[in-house]
Amino acid sequence: MKKLVRAYFQEAKWYYGNTVPRMEEEYMKNGIQSSSISNLATTSWLGMGDEATKEAFKWITTEPPILVASSIIGRLLNDIVSHEDLF
């Protein structure tokens, strides 16, 4: 949750500072955190009953590649949809 709030704060600083972040170095690195996929995956894990072990939660906090890839896809899809709504 702290990572999500920090990512939102960074986006607010970019917005109010009229700053355009660099795609790979800044925006996508921050976008992985602000996509909130990791929070969704963590809370979904709780509904899995016996599968929600301490080891499973430790694994998900290591940001596995499947979680990072899902976050990137979610962020880019969200950006495409919001861009289409603006114009």
Strand content: under 5%
Binned, the helix content reads over 70%
Mean pLDDT: 87
- In DSSP terms, counting alpha (H) and pi (I) runs of 4 or more, how many helices? 5
The number of domains: 1
What structural class should be given to the helix and strand makeup?
mainly alpha
**Low confidence ranges:** none
Q: Please tally the β strands and state the result.
A: 0
Order of helices and strands: HHHHH
Which outline best applies? Answer: elongated
Radius of gyration: 15 Å
- Largest sheet properties: none
Q: CA-to-CA gap between the ends?
A: 32 Å
Keywords: Metal-binding
Domain Terpene synthase metal-binding: 1-85
Protein name: Terpene synthase metal-binding domain-containing protein
Pfam families: Terpene_synth_C (PF03936)
Give an account of the 3D structure:
There is one protein chain. By secondary structure, the protein is an all-alpha fold. It has one domain (2-86). It is built from 5 helices and no strands. It is elongated and about 45 Å long.
What is the topological layout?
Layout: H1 2-16, H2 23-34, H3 37-46, H4 54-61, H5 65-86
